[in-house]
Structures are given as C-alpha cells and as structure tokens.
Amino acid sequence: MKLQIRLLGVDDSPFTFNDKYSTVIGVIMRGGEYLEGVISRQVTIDGSDATFVCKEMIENTRHKNQLRAMMLDGIALGGFNVVDIQEIFVETGLPVITVTRDDPNFNDIKNALKMNFVDWKERFNLIKKGELHMIETNYNPIYIKCAGISLEEAKVIIKLSTIRGVIPEPIRIAHLIASGITRGDSYGKA
C-alpha cells in the first residue's frame, strides 16, 4: 500500500441539543502527512441523513477518483444520526473504517435510544451491524468497524495515517477544524 494513500477523514462539530444541525467536516489527506482539501456539510442532530451526507461528500468531491478509504470518528454524526457504512461502500465503492477510542457500551446505547427515539430498534441495529474489532496501538487500543476492506488492510491504513497517539490524522484534523469553526477554538480529543 502506498504511503501517500488518499484518505477522507470525517468528524462532526460539537453541538447542543438546541441546535438543529451539526457541521460535518471531511479532510482529504495523503496518508497522515499532507492535507489536500477540506469539505463541509451539515447533518440533522439525531436525524437520519448522515449516510446520505457521507455519500454526497464522496460523490461530489473533486478528489473522488483518488480516494482509497473514508475514515469516520465513530458510527454516528450529530448525536445518534447513525451512518450505514456498508451502504456507503456499496453505493460509492469507497471502503469505510470507523474509529473509536472507547469500547462501546451497547446496553447504555440501547437504553438511550429507547428513551429518545421511536425508531430506536433500527438505529440500534445499524449501530450493531458489522463486527467491532479491537486494535492494539502503542498507547491505548482503538475499536474499528470496516466495510469494503479487510481488517488487515484497515490496520495498515490506520498505521500509515497515525502520526502520534491513536487517532488517524485525517480524523484528528477533521475534529480540530470542526471544533474550531463551531467554538472559535479547537479543543478536545477526536
């Protein structure tokens, strides 16, 4: 795999539940070293448009033909606006990797969904869809899901795109931009 593989890292901006939308930032990078472009869109907080928005980001970027994978910070954007990574891969042909720092507590997630959504079962099934893999790093483990790519290939992409810490650079940069434009100063961990 090329060191300069082009990746699309995606994260959402911080929001309050009084907000209707969350800004989503996509960062196109060569590996973890060179920033080539930034894409922005919006998703509805706790809505159901995140999958569509991700597909639209891929289809409408001038970098589409060079992209080799999309990396998402988690499985949802804008709260519980759950992303169907398999649908993204099937409809765009671009493999997708989700990355999270923490092992998800599915009981807590299920309870939160039950309390807040009439379609909680569909959202929960989408969150649980696909196998969750724990990946050891030099620091703490991360947890990933993949669509359209093998676990071994995903590990190589994560290693190529992680400069320091555990979060791949495309996701980390997307997080910094998203929090910076929303709050006026970037903060927090992706």
Protein topology:
Layout: E1 6-12, E2 21-30, E3 34-44, H1 50-60, E4 67-73, E5 76-77, E6 81-82, H2 85-92, E7 96-100, H3 106-116, H4 120-128, E8 133-135, E9 142-147, H5 151-161, H6 169-183
Parallel strand pairs: 1-4, 4-7
Antiparallel strand pairs: 1-2, 2-3, 5-6, 7-9, 8-9
Helix pairs in contact: 1-2, 3-4
What's the quick description here?
The protein has 6 helices and 9 strands; from the N terminus they run βββαβββαβααββαα.
What do you see in this structure?
The protein has a single domain, classed as 2-Layer Sandwich (archaeoglobus fulgidus dsm 4304 fold). The protein contains six helices and nine strands; from the N terminus they run E-E-E-H-E-E-E-H-E-H-H-E-E-H-H. The protein has helices at residues 50-60, 85-92, 106-116, 120-128, 151-161, 169-183; strands at 6-12, 21-30, 34-44, 67-73, 76-77, 81-82, 96-100, 133-135, 142-147. Helix 1 packs parallel to helix 2 (85-92) and helix 3 (106-116) runs antiparallel to helix 4. It is globular, with a radius of gyration of 15 Å.
